[in-house]
Amino acid sequence: MTKKLRNLWLEREEHKVRSPQRRRKKIDLHKRYYLTWLFVIWWLIGYILQVFWTVPESLGFSKPFFLLLYALCMLEISGVMRNMKLLFSFLGFGVACYVLEVASVHFSIPFGTYGYTSVLGSPVYGVPFTIVFAWIAVFINCWGLAISAGRFWQALETACYIVLFDLILDPVAIFEGYWEWNANGFYYGIPLQNFLSWFVIAFLFALLLNKHHSKSTTKRMIFVLYGMQILLFSSIAAKHGEFLVFLIGIVILVIGGSLYYARSKNNNFFTAIFRFYQSKYLLPRYFNQIYILGDTEAQVEDGVPVLYLVNHSSWWDGLLCFQAYQRNAVPLENMMMMEEAQLEKLRFFQRLGAFSIAPDKPKSLVETLRYVEEKLKNGQKVWIFPQGEIRHQDSRPLHVKRGVAKIMERFDEVAIKFVSMYYYLGEKQKLNAVLEFSTPVVVNGRMLEKEKMLQERLQSQLDELRDNILYNEKNTLEKAETLLKRESKSISDSFLK
């Protein structure tokens, strides 16, 4: 009964997602960024006035208001406004940074010796309170750009972005009279102490926060806003004749834009770099040899969608699949579906063509199935771990989740390639791995008992591969193609002669 109710729920949610009303609702979401659009308009006005003209005295409030709008924009676009705990954390962060600024103005710790003017607002204890908004805005902007998988690396990435931002901001603040340094620093009178303090503060606060992962559309908007700020301050520096700052800003924009493009989802440049890194360093570090049995390509008639079903027993499965299909496949032709919980931990897989599925969230499940259907209709091959979780390679039976059957039901015919992955230790210190690809099996997408058929085929192929490796390894691997063969020896290998 529970299974029937769940299927009815899925069908109802699928109907909702496909309905025109649902589509219109999704399209209207971007119109809710009112503060963001207001900030963009204010930024354009400010850019024209500050770069090509002068700001009238009647708009003396414009710069403090700019900081307020920037902060509200970043709070809105990052979704922080919908999370009260996170919102108060950022407000506390802004106030804490204000206190540090006051301490630095009076005691030269931690940023150095400097003093504020009244351009950004009337100083309170020597510091305009609008600095709270500046810290919040800049931090969220840099924090939102970070995409590293672990909390430590995300914090490190955030700190690097914020220091790059300050390399442009601080000199322009001097040119525009926001504040004045009373030190003989190496960079326009700004001491190294200032940049180190920015780095440490941003790193520590980002380390305290949970990992942040924005949607791809939001990430693009955050990146554009970061670039807009760099462009604004670089242009102001050029207006003052300080072309070194302008050049640094342009370099940040060019390199940052290139890296963002390279790290964007499914980008060929990033996958090429990662494939080289993995084949030359990562895999040889942990594996002795990796073999492929069978043809990785699926030779089927045009218009027949192709699904690769892979048993899932190790963290390495996704990387080995990536290495196998990137070996000679057309870029962007293959995509990999991973469980949402695993992809949250290993976000870099998104850059290699992975996308998530949440089996326990009906709405998300329906949207993912529609996404897979679209990719298959476009001729892309989709790799799926049908077990839905990592299970030991000798664990039986190999349960197949219903999501695969739901995908098959959307087509009259589906070509299935079963992929078995088996890991084992030999006479060497490091692991060996074998990937066996079956010939494509074209099945009726609407056949009954699909899960049972898929489970039996996947399990029997893995059992056969295991037996061949255990009892007939030499003859089995004579027919295999070598994906990786480690040439160098470790110290311990020398004792195995």
From TrEMBL:
Bilayer-spanning residue ranges: 33-53, 65-81, 88-109, 129-147, 159-179, 185-209, 221-238, 244-262
Keyword Transmembrane helix: yes
UniProt domain Phospholipid/glycerol acyltransferase: residue ranges: 306-424
Keywords, comma-separated and alphabetical: Acyltransferase, Membrane, Transferase, Transmembrane, Transmembrane helix
InterPro entries named in the record: CruF-like, Plipid/glycerol_acylTrfase
Top-rank lineage group of the source organism: Bacteria
SMART domains (alphabetical): PlsC (SM00563)
A Pfam entry, by short name: Acyltransferase
Gene Ontology molecular function terms on file: acyltransferase activity
Protein name (database record): 2-acyl-glycerophospho-ethanolamine acyltransferase
